[in-house]
Design brief:
By secondary structure, the chain is of the alpha+beta class. It has one helix spanning 36-59; strands at residues 11-16, 24-29.
Length: 70
């Protein structure tokens, strides 16, 4: 539901883990024009980016420090 109570169409795609068939993930997409395979492909790219940022953050030791300028 949207903030105003209106409904939003969404597609849920369930994907099994290749190495552990009992493990799975549910992906949700509000763009109804995208097919299931494309949703999985886009999520895979997004996941690669998240892992990259986490690795960089860990390598640069940015997890516990914050420096800001105003």
């Amino acid at each position: 539901l949207a903030k105003d109570g209106a409904q939003i169409d969404a597609r849920i795609v369930c994907v099994r883990n290749r190495s552990n068939r009992k493990d799975w993930i549910a992906l949700i997409c509000t763009d109804m024009t995208i097919d299931e395979n494309e949703i999985i492909r886009i999520y895979g790219k997004r996941w690669d980016i998240e892992v990259f940022f986490k690795t960089c953050k860990s390598f640069l030791k940015l997890g516990t420090e914050y420096h800001g300028l105003s």
